[in-house]
Amino acid sequence: MKIWSRTGAALAAVALLVSGCGGSDSDSDGGGSGGGGDGGPITLRVADTNGAPLYFLKYGIEQGFFEDAGVELEATASSGGATVIPQLVSGDLDIAGSNVVSVLIARSQGLPLKMVAAGTSTSEDPEQDFSALMVPAGSPITDIGQLEGQKVAVNTLRNINDIVLGHMLEDAGLSFDSVELVEIPFPDMAAAIESGDVAAGVLIEPFITVAEQQGLTIIGRPYSDLKPGLQIGTYVMTEQFVNENPDAVSAFQEGVQATADAIADDPDAFRAALPQLGDISPELADQVRINLWKGETDQESLELIQGLMTTYGLIDEEVDLDELVVG
Fold it and tell me: Taking the complete model, does pTM exceed 0.70, yes or no?
């Protein structure tokens, strides 16, 4: 399994930038520290993975939860993983929605990041896991143990996929690097699997349900296989931004928690909003598996993931989670 990539190289370049200039400038043009208090809402720019993670933010915006917290949130789509971290550190974003693996790698490289809220978590019920390892229709492959030496698509390299697939491979009696990971965006992944460019791929909703409709088959549930309810996503800010804008941090956390609570209380309302949030059909919205959002960071998930990261060589030594997580 590859453990380096263009995103890893980008993080290394940003680490050099940070060491030279001291991190992002929260007072740069378009920064998120403006507004708030008597001056109106705080404007914050965030990018999160296209699909369910982004729909969560859009739902909170449309329901007014961020506005009620004093935040004007500008949410845009990303391809996920480490791709948004350079934008965050350079000051082009105030908040990055990423996965915990990419953030832990970045932090281990010296990037000044803080986890301020939890992003997506998977279901406690494996059948409702919003991730799936999928193969083409008619494929003889029925489990990950048959993928040794073959190409497997992931949305970005050096992210949560390295950990969950590594764990599944080891459970199947193989080494964690027994497959070759290939970076393909979620919207293009099913086609790559169908065409044979890759033998399998790790998708998330709503791309899983679309792929099922096209005949692709699920052979594993990577997230819940590691831990039911595993926290996958996280929202991060730079240390400088957190230190200089505590009101913005608290307001964003409040909006995230209110959105998470609303979806937990009434998941059907969130499902009903998906056609507008994600430009997907009502029929598809009725079938997709809904993520979990908890708002607060799950320390158990972080400890589990970080332990495997050191085992698999994604980081040399564990980072201080107490220093990384903002309560």
Answer: yes
